[in-house]
Structures are given as C-alpha cells and as structure tokens.
Amino acid sequence: MQFRQKALAKLQSPEELDLPVRYARPQGRLVLCVTLLAMVAACVWAVTGTVTSKLTAPAVLTHPQGSYLLQSPVAGQVTEVLAREGQSVREGQPLLRVETPRGDRAVRAVAPGRVTTLVAKIGTVVTTGTDVATVERVERRGEPLVAMVYVPGAQASSVRAGSSVDLTLQSVPAQSYGVLRGTVKAVGAAPQTREQITSFLGDRQLGEQFSRRGKPVAVLVELKRSSGTRSGYAWSSADGPPYRIGSMTQADAAVHLDPQRPIDWLLP
User: Fold this and answer.
1) Averages of pLDDT over each 10 residues, the chain, 268 residues
2) Staple partner for 211: which of 85, 119, 194, 266, CB 3.0–4.6 Å?
3) Which of 200, 236, 217, 229 has the alpha carbon at shortest distance from 68?
4) Using an 8 Å Cβ cutoff, are 133 and 114 in contact?
5) What is this structure's pTM?
6) DSSP string, the chain
7) Positive or negative CA dihedral for 192, 198, 201, 207?
8) What is the spatial distance between Cα 82 and Cα 97, in angstroms, rounded to a whole number?
C-alpha cells in the first residue's frame, strides 16, 4: 500500500515544481570538461597530425639487368660442359656441346654475364627449348646489387620513388645484424605476368612464387652503399653481417609509405 500511495501522489503532481533543481555535481562537470578537451585534441590531431604506415611485399636481390634462361637450340645429348658456375662469359661463348644426328653443336651464351646455374650435365638428353643454364647479366665485376620488390597490383599506387625501404634477408639473421637499407628508384608502369618475371630473373620457380596472388608490380630499390661494412651496403646495425651478400637472395621488403593526415581518411 505504501508504494501505491507514492504512485498516486506522483500522478497528482507529475511536474514536482515545488522541488529544488539539482545541478550537476563537481565530479560530473570535471568528466564533461575532460571529454570536451579530448574531443578538441582529437580534432586538432586529425587535421594537423600525421600517421605513417608500411607496405610489405616479397623481394629478391639481383643486378639491374636481371638474368636470362639459356635454352638449347637443338635436341641431343650433352657431351661436354665448357663453363662452370660463377664463371664470366662473353656473348657467343660456347657453354655446352650437344651431339645431334647432324653432328656436334655448341650452345652459346646469347649475352655477356656470369653463369649462376648449370642445369645440363654430361650425358643429359635435351630437346629444343630445354633450359640448360642461367646467366646473370653483369657488365662489370663488382657491379652493385639492387632489390626487385613485387608489390600487389592494387597497392602499387601508394608507392613513391624516393621512399625508404627496409629489407629483411632470409640468409641474414635480423636479430643479430638488422635489416638492409634501400630507396625506391622506380615503380613499374604495369603489372607483370609470371612469364615476364621469369624472363627477368631467369628463374621459373620465382616467377611462379611472385605471381601466385595475381600480377604484381615490380618496384626497383637501390641499396644504400657503405664503405664501413663488410657487405658494402648500409644496415640498421652498425656493421651488418661479416660477409658479402650475393644475388638471388630472397628478402621481405617493408616500404615506408607517405605520411597521411587522419582527416584524409574521412574525405572522399
């Protein structure tokens, strides 16, 4: 009955005009002020602040002109191997001899460079178009390496020439020696097919690997040189690894993108 009487009294005087108005407590005003200040600070940061981000993609170290797959122009059996891996060759130099029904034929280098892989051995039976060697296009001894980063086509537009790049090499422990430093030199104009990647790197497996998720855009990264390291390149650590790094070393690249203002994310 007590609760019913209170309800009836409430109905009889719903506005309770005779009761004093209760203002916000000091604690509530403090919370309100803090909330307003935080909102103002967030708005100022959204307009004047910047946010940095990175784009990660697979990469491989190579020389600026890449490599090529040397294919046998004839069918037959390899009778002699005239070159060895690591050897520099000139254009037209014979690398193999193949016995054919029409006599011995030489398989010659189509461009100068350095032999990185010899697939064919003595006794190997080859057909026309068989891959027999990989030759890296090197014009001079000691030519510096570059990194080719294969960025997904949908993200390539965010990469700019001059952007910094950190390369984590698979053959170099990053915990001990850090990452390799580089700068974006050029961004490809169009996505590349598996065949184009294979043709440039001279490696079908890498062509398949880098195009597995679609056609990527090739980004050329110039490695920063350093006379104070054993490798000849700049690292995030003082000295880098105590050995030289070779071409065809795979890496994971982190490309530093241009800073953006948070408000830009809200604008069309």
Assistant:
1) 58 55 62 74 59 86 93 94 92 94 93 91 93 89 90 91 94 93 94 94 93 93 93 92 91 84 54
2) 194
3) 200
4) no
5) 0.74
6) -HHHHHHHHHHHSSS-TTSPPPPPPHHHHHHHHHHHHHHHHHHHHHHH--B--EEEEEEEEE-TT-EEEEE-SS-EEEEEE---TT-EE-TT-EEEEEEETTEEEEEE-SS-EEEEEE---TT-EE-TT-EEEEEE--SSTTPPPEEEEEEEGGGGGG--TT-EEEEEETTS-HHHH--EEEEEEEE-SS---HHHHHHHHT-HHHHHHHTTTSPEEEEEEEEPB-TTSSSSB-BSSSS--SS---TT-EEEEEEEPPPB-GGGGT--
7) positive
8) 8
* Chain centroid to CA 86: 27
Across the strands, what pairs with 106?
97
User: 47-95: per-residue pLDDT in tens?
Assistant: 555 556 889 999 999 999 999 999 999 999 999 999 999 899 999 999 9
Q: What is the DSSP string of 164-188?
A: EEEEEETTS-HHHH--EEEEEEEE-
What token pair was written down for 56? 């990660």
Short-list 146, 245, 163, CA closest to 201: 146
Residue type present at position 264:
D
Rounded CA-CA distance 128/144 in Å is 34
